[in-house]
Design a protein that fits this description.
about 375 residues, eight-stranded antiparallel sheet, Jelly Rolls, binds calcium ion
């Protein structure tokens, strides 16, 4: 190889070599930028996921937000080097909730924190299959207006203006446990066929009432006999040792397979027996269960139904709130409950505990809609 050629080869090596190393340096810079981008993408994705997850929790009613901020911790939520530490739900101006997931990621030993946020507004929907809703805010007169849109206004029977008292919201009605009732008519009893939920606020009177008192009941023959239909009822005991003071609730349905019922007893100390409680009876032939529960205390009793048990219907059924129509005189199952009621609903569907909690808290099923969000 000649001298000139040698020089050319050396130059080529130097030039190419330099180019390679500068290429390598560029690649290093590139991959760092890529990593940075990827890491940010990862944390942002997790933030977006957490946000979605939080919104979904609100939609399904798994997280319920009242006046207070709710912090929901998610200790095992990890993906690669990123995890959702917690999601905060903060009640905002008007009827809005801010959802703030707190996401943590680690990169090369460094901890990265990130907050995403979304603001949700709400609209309150009434249950689709609701066929009667008595807010009992009429305050005067002999009519309990139905707010369901179905027009099943009730008629106060053996009651007067002094029975309109303070309720949970606005007014409620006080029942004497003897002959006070609201008559809802016969047509209303045909509004459900299989599934049924009845629920209302109840404040028990402090008098002992050892017989079952009807809260809401279907009466099959106009004489107070329970040949067909359903009954949500209670029984209260406030005598003797206060440890034995108790309230019992029972939900019963007459079905094609016979009487199906479920009951629960709550003793003094387990809850304030004389406070307001949101009580529900649920008949669900699809799940083959009958349920009675105290929604605000999250106390439930569930029984299994016989196979193919469906409500047994009668064309002459009527529904009453309080005492039973045609029965009365304070005897056994024909008597009414002692105490005050508010917000009575009848729904031809089997509501879940979450849906019932929403009905209790928001006077309807709360459906979130997105107002703004930032990842
Ligand atoms: Ca009366
Ligand atoms: Ca009311």
């Amino acid at each position: 190889m000649g001298r000139i050629n040698m020089i050319i080869v050396m130059l080529v090596i130097i030039v190419v070599g330099n180019s390679f190393s500068s290429l390598q340096r560029n690649a290093e810079n590139m991959s760092e930028a890529m990593n940075e981008y990827y890491r940010e993408f990862q944390v942002k994705s997790m933030g977006a996921f957490a946000l979605n997850y939080g919104i979904q929790k609100l939609q399904t009613g798994d997280v319920l937000v009242g006046d207070q901020e709710v912090v929901w911790y998610t200790p095992n939520f990890n993906l690669y080097d990123t995890n959702i530490d917690s999601i905060r739900f903060i009640p905002g101006v008007g009827d809005t909730i801010k959802v703030l997931p707190y996401v943590q990621g680690t990169y090369q030993g460094q901890t990265l924190n990130r907050e995403s946020s979304a603001t949700l507004g709400f609209h309150i929907a009434q249950p689709e299959e609701q066929f009667a809703y008595y807010m009992l805010d009429d305050a005067i007169g002999a009519v309990a207006s139905d707010s369901s849109g179905m027009g099943y206004n009730g008629t106060l029977t053996n009651m007067n203006n002094s029975d309109w008292v303070t309720g949970v919201d606005g007014y409620g009605l006080e029942f004497d446990g003897e002959n006070d009732y609201i008559y809802l008519g016969e047509d209303i009893a045909r509004e459900y066929e299989d599934k049924l939920t009845v629920c209302c606020w109840i404040k028990t009177d402090s008098r002992t009432h050892q017989n079952w008192g009807n809260i809401i009941t279907e009466n099959s023959d106009g004489n107070g006999n329970q040949i067909t239909g359903f009954t949500l009822r209670d029984k209260v005991h406030f005598q003797g040792n206060s440890k034995n003071h108790r309230v019992e609730f029972e939900f019963e349905m007459t079905t094609t397979s016979g009487k199906e019922k479920v009951s629960l007893t709550v003793y003094n100390g387990e809850m304030d027996l004389l406070g307001w409680h949101y009580v529900a009876g649920i008949f669900n032939p699809e799940a083959q269960t009958i349920t009675v529960g105290i929604v605000d205390e999250d106390i439930w009793a569930v029984s299994n139904l016989s196979a193919n048990a469906l409500p047994w219907r009668s064309l002459t059924s009527n529904i009453t709130i309080g005492s039973i129509d045609g029965g009365g005189n304070g005897q056994g199952k024909k008597s009414g409950m002692y105490g005050t009621m508010d917000a009575v609903r009848l729904i031809a569907d089997a509501m879940t505990p979450e849906e019932l909690r929403m009905l209790m808290l928001y006077h309807g099923v709360k459906k979130p809609k997105l107002v703004e969000w930032k990842i």
